Amino acid sequence: MDEKLQTQIEPHTQAVIPESIPTTAPKPHKTVEILRKSVEYLDVVSAGKKLDPDDKNHIIKHTLENFDDYFNKGFLQYRKSVAEAEDIAAIEWTGQGSIIEDIMGRKFIDCLGGFGVYNMGIRHPKIIAAVKAQLERMPLSSQELLDPLRGFLAELLGELAPGDLQECFFISNGTDAVEGALKLARLYTKKTGFISTTGGFHGKSMGSLSVMGRAVYRKPFHPLLPDIFFVDYGDIKDMERELRKLHDLGEDIAAIILEPVQGEAGAVVPPEGYLRRLRQLCDEYGILLILDEVQTGMGRTGRVFACEHEGVTPDIICLGKALGGGVMPLSAFMSTPKIWKVLEDNPFLHSSTFGGNPLACAAGIAAINVMLEEELPKQAAEKGAYLMKRLRSLHALYPEILKEVRGKGLLIGLEFSDRFIGYRVAAGLFKRGVLVAGTLLSARTIRIEPALNISYELLDNMLDKLNDTLKQVEKETKDKPAKPAP
Ligand SMILES: Cc1ncc(COP(=O)(O)O)c(C=O)c1O
After folding, report:
1. What pLDDT is attached to residue 15?
2. Backbone angles phi, psi at 444, to 5 degrees
3. 92 C-alpha vs ligand 1 centroid, how far in Å?
4. How far apart are CA 340 and CA 350, in angstroms?
5. 203 alpha carbon to ligand 1 midpoint, in Å?
6. pLDDT in tens, 328-343
């Protein structure tokens, strides 16, 4: 620390492990043990010692036990049921670019991309360097002084976003961005209703869940927000009908919310012109258009934002996932100065302690730099076209099991004849060292969503392994019909 600054600050006693253990902790008899374990775990975090085989086995054992005993119990059971028994112990350890390595040193080609987080690859050196430098100076905000990075990133995004989307607010998760967008739309329009789409995925907090188009996540939490109406995704006639009906019934609709390409639903691309017509309809009915680009943004589909394919500017856009460069959690919702005016009187109508913190903003600034410098949207478009061509050849080779190949840029979905086949393909790829994304709770569609700067060599490698897997699964399916995955 700067010497002058240090002398101005009152000396602090250095933090040390207390000699007498506080007895006010909730489980005082366990405090010594917790302290001992925290030291052991910090040693692992700081890689203070080189791991020998015993250490590795110890970590694997503890990870499994801890997930089972302390973390969201069903999670490990679910993993156990969808992963081959031997693979449950694949403990994530490190990664670089498009390669992930487990603790035993097994390497995987990352074609899952953290469900859209790793557009720039894992541990991009420029993004890591920016975050490390900021970490050394000021990791989180004072909450009172102005943080320059928040302004820098807001400016870059304001310049990058289409049309007059200029104002923004930072939070940490995609669902937070959607919550903010819904609130802003209600505030501005003074209307309550929303139209969303079947199959749409917008996050799992209550507001986002209310506009989510999947029963499995919605039903356990009913009743959700009122006045939410659903239409079939990509079906413009259904949207026109619904709008006419709601208008005739006098329902107050604040906004339509949807993804320009549905990610979780399995890379579902709407027909050409869908977004343009939606924009017209919104203007006609005086309704806002919210585009959830949490997964499609930051170059994923071949443009910085997927809405640019149709030259459409929404009234509110939601960003997340790759916005933090695959290093920090960061999300945003953006809108126009005209709409944002409703927040001017009380900008604290929406707030977040960690949203837009300096570490996240450093990552966001570096992510934008890398995206533009490496022309990631262009890479996504070119590599996406290359992959689609090769995947369509595989579709022609294995039409009995691989039913459809679709997508845009490097957001690609492979749809199988049923989820059991999809599961076998995902498991076969895993065994061969390729990670792909089975959509949550359903493997019928597998998503291929790699880093946008993945090499052609790795893509070819993945395609060879996919060919092998499909050959094997097709043969097994002919020999004996698919057995349901547990
Ligand atoms: C389009 C879209 N919106 C919102 C979300 C929710 O993001 P998060 O899990 O960061 O809250 C997701 C997550 O997959 C998403 O794909």
Report:
1. 41
2. -60, -40
3. 22
4. 12
5. 5
6. 999 999 999 999 999 9
- Cα 280 to middle of ligand 1, angstroms: 26
Among 176, 178, 294, name the best residue to mutate to test ligand 1's pocket (greatest count of ligand atoms within 8 A of Cβ). 294
Two tokens, residue 456: 């052609």
Question: Angle of helix 337-344 relative to helix 174-189, nearest 10 degrees?
Answer: 80
Write out residues in the chain with pLDDT < 50, as ranges.
1-17, 85-86, 486
pLDDT at 149: 98
Q: Is the CB of 172 under 6 A from ligand 1?
A: no
Name the residue at shortest CA distance from atom 13 of ligand 1. 203
Domain boundaries, the chain: 125-373
Q: Is the CB of 173 under 6 A from ligand 1?
A: yes
Q: How far apart are the C-alpha atoms of 55 and 48, rounded to whole Å?
A: 12
If DSSP codes are grouped into helix, strand and coil, which group holds residue 416? strand
Distance 334 CA to ligand 1 centre (A): 16
CATH of domain 125-373: 3.40.640.10
* Å from CA of 101 to ligand 1 middle: 25
Q: For tokens 């390497």, what's the residue?
A: 107
User: What's the gap in Å between 317 CA and the centre of ligand 1?
Assistant: 13
Among 363, 401, 371, 389, smallest CA distance to 463 is for 389
Q: What is the pLDDT of residue 108?
A: 96
Closest protein CA for atom 4 of ligand 1: 202
Q: Is the CB of 323 inside a 6 Å radius of any atom of ligand 1?
A: no
pTM of the model: 0.92
Distance CA 485, CA 476 (A): 14
In order of 18, 235, 430, the CA distances from 15 in angstroms are 9, 61, 45
* Pair 404, 395: CB distance under 8 Å: yes
Instruction: Kindly state if the Cβ of 175 falls inside 6 Å of ligand 1.
Output: yes
pLDDT at 439: 55
pLDDT per position as a tens digit, 101-139: 999 999 999 999 999 999 999 999 999 999 999 999 999
**Could you give the CA distance from residue 110 to residue 450 in angstroms, rounded to a whole number?**
6
